[in-house]
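To the wet lab folks,

You asked to see what we're planning to order before we commit. Fair enough. Below is the target structure as tokens, and below that is the sequence we designed to fit it. If anything looks off to you, flag it before the synthesis order goes out.
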């Protein structure tokens, strides 16, 4: 009962802030927002479809559940992905007007608070109730399932949604999704960025803002490649000697 009581309080506060923060991001810069860029991008990628928001949050819920059972701690997916997307799904299922649902901080906060109570209580109760001997078996089932869902199913779902959104969006999502899979090991961030660029160009054209965003995305991939040492790995695989200045630069950045 103590776990349930504390979970209700924590879940309500967590869901309230997560729902309101995600919603207020749609109203920036007129108001300050508590959230993350990836949350905004991922919610935009769901294109205000209740089923998409629910399925996206569901994928990360299994990952969060596995982490809670295994380590007894929540992952950031609960606040960044599960609660905001499920709050959006619950509101959109009854009203398709995004101005009155997803972009309404008050309604998103209340929906997030209710879902926060349910999600946090479920995670804490199941984690507490499962004996230590069964946690190993539970993790052995949940972790592979969550990994398959996040690394295989979700990228395909987002990629298909991007292709359905038009040729330009499909092209950029395929390009950046493939690069993200190679560099980051997961295509979802690249597909989301591709959707952002493709839809932005469709609506505004190649404005200065879109050129800046495209440049920033390219720079992001270049920096990700560099900091992961993929340039040195590529030279090694090609059996080409790495220049001394490049090794020195990596050593300086990594602090070796």
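Sequence we intend to order:
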């Amino acid at each position: 009962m103590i776990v349930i009581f504390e979970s209700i309080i924590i879940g309500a506060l967590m869901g309230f802030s997560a729902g309101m923060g995600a919603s207020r991001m749609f109203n920036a810069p007129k108001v300050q927002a508590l959230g993350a860029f990836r949350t905004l991008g991922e919610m935009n990628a769901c294109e205000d479809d209740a089923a998409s928001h629910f399925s996206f949050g569901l994928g990360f819920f299994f990952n969060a559940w596995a982490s809670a059972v295994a380590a007894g701690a929540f992952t950031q997916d609960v606040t960044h992905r599960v609660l905001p997307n499920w709050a959006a799904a619950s509101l959109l299922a009854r009203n398709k007007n995004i101005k009155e649902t997803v972009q309404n901080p008050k309604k998103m906060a209340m929906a997030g608070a209710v879902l926060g109570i349910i999600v946090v209580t479920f995670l804490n109760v199941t984690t507490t109730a499962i004996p230590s001997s069964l946690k190993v078996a539970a993790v052995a089932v949940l972790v592979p399932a969550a990994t398959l869902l996040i690394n295989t199913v979700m990228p395909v779902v987002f990629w298909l949604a991007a292709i359905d959104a038009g040729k330009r969006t499909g092209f950029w999502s395929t390009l950046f999704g493939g690069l993200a899979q190679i560099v980051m090991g997961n295509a979802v961030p690249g597909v989301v960025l591709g959707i952002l660029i493709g839809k932005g160009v469709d609506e505004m054209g190649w404005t200065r803002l879109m050129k800046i965003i495209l440049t920033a995305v390219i720079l992001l991939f270049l920096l990700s490649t560099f900091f992961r040492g993929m340039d040195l790995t590529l030279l090694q695989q090609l059996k080409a000697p790495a220049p001394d200045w490049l090794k020195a630069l990596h050593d300086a950045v990594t602090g070796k």
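Structural context that might help your review: Residues 233 and 239 are 10 Å apart (CA to CA). The two ends are 51 Å apart (CA to CA).

Thanks,
Computational group
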